[in-house]
Amino acid sequence: MEAETTYKQRTREEVMAWLQRARERKQAWEEQTQLELKVMAEEARRAKESHYFDFAG
């Protein structure tokens, strides 16, 4: 018994649109990650400057 394929053949335009959406999602994710890292670094810098976590001092 032969298995049937159930996938739909995609056009070049559909594939290119899918890749473009993937690139846009990746870029948005990278921008969000960079923003979060920048915020974390700023919070760490402020905490260090305030000696809030400096228990030896």
Defining key terms:
single chain; 57 residues; mainly alpha; 1 helix; 0% strand; rod-shaped
Describe the 3D structure:
This protein has 57 residues and is mostly helical. The protein contains one helix and no strands. It has one helix spanning 12-50. It starts with 11 loop residues before the first helix and ends in a 7-residue tail after the last helix.
In short:
With 57 residues, the protein is mostly helical.
Low-confidence runs: none
Number of strands: 0
Summed over residues and divided by their number, the pLDDT gives a mean of: 87
Q: Span between N and C termini?
A: 78 Å
Q: Compute the CA-based radius of gyration.
A: 24 Å
**Strand fraction:** under 5%
Secondary structure category = mainly alpha
Shape: rod-shaped
Q: What secondary-structure arrangement, pairings included, does this model have?
A:
Elements: H1 12-50
